[in-house]
Inverse folding.
């Protein structure tokens, strides 16, 4: 069982900045604080409509993380424009996600099985440029299998449904969603894929995901940035780190 990494997604610092225009609050400052507080890497989603992270943010984050010797995980849609940007910056990791402009956040996973002819060459080009390629998929055996088939090294399992069910007190559905996540993680591990998980995680749900042995990275954004408003980003990340480690320790025995 590998150690569990925390990737902090700083998109919503940029959301607050963009509400007023200008440069404050700076997502770069959040990235620096996150690394100091115990994040292993930084995640940022460059959306086609640039509603939070900008092209300049990506350039600055690439420089910061390179000089800090820490990984940048660039989330993006599978489009020629985004692939061009990734090839230019060559981030440590690229996570391909589905994207519709009208959605508030990434709803559902990428349909890898239904778009293999689009995704396979994208994965190949990104890998050739030296990035580790991750596909953000639902806990669905067909999608996990297709992810291995198109040559991805990593799957990031979408935890949104599980988190929503748990928050809404729908224990039976949450249990079923968690079983599906466990099965998908185990299948992915058997196929030689590295397993990450993310979306909607908080202090309650992150330790549960930490208890799945194949999961080696959690990517968490919205909750941490929101909690940071009340307790400060450093305290929020430290508490998350501790919650994840406690969840991991339970299965380590
Ligand atoms: N992982 C992926 C692939 C995502 O698209 C997102 C949302 O941008 C996250 C993790 C983080 O989700 P949240 O902001 O809900 O923690």
């Amino acid at each position: 069982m590998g150690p569990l990494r925390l990737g902090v997604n700083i998109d919503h610092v940029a959301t607050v900045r963009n509400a007023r225009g200008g440069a404050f609050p700076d997502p770069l400052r959040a990235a620096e604080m996150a690394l100091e507080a115990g994040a292993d890497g930084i995640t940022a989603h460059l959306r086609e409509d640039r509603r939070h992270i900008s092209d300049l943010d990506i350039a600055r984050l690439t420089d910061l993380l390179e000089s800090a010797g820490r990984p940048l995980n660039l989330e993006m849609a599978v489009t020629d424009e985004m692939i061009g940007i990734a090839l230019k910056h060559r981030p440590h990791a690229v996570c391909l996600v589905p994207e519709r402009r009208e959605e508030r956040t990434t709803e559902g996973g990428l349909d890898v099985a239904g778009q293999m002819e689009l995704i396979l060459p994208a994965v190949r080009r990104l890998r050739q440029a030296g990035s580790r390629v991750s596909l953000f998929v639902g806990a669905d055996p067909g999608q996990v299998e297709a992810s291995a088939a198109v040559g991805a090294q990593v799957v990031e399992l979408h935890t949104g449904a599980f988190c929503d069910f748990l928050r809404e007190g729908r224990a039976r559905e949450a249990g079923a969603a968690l079983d599906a996540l466990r099965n998908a993680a185990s299948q992915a591990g058997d196929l030689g894929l590295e397993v990450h998980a993310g979306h909607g995680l908080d202090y309650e749900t992150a330790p549960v995901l930490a208890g799945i042995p194949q999961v080696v990275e959690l990517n968490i954004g919205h909750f941490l940035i929101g909690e940071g408003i009340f307790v400060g980003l450093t305290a929020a990340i430290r508490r998350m780190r501790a919650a994840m480690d406690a969840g991991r320790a339970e299965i380590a025995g």
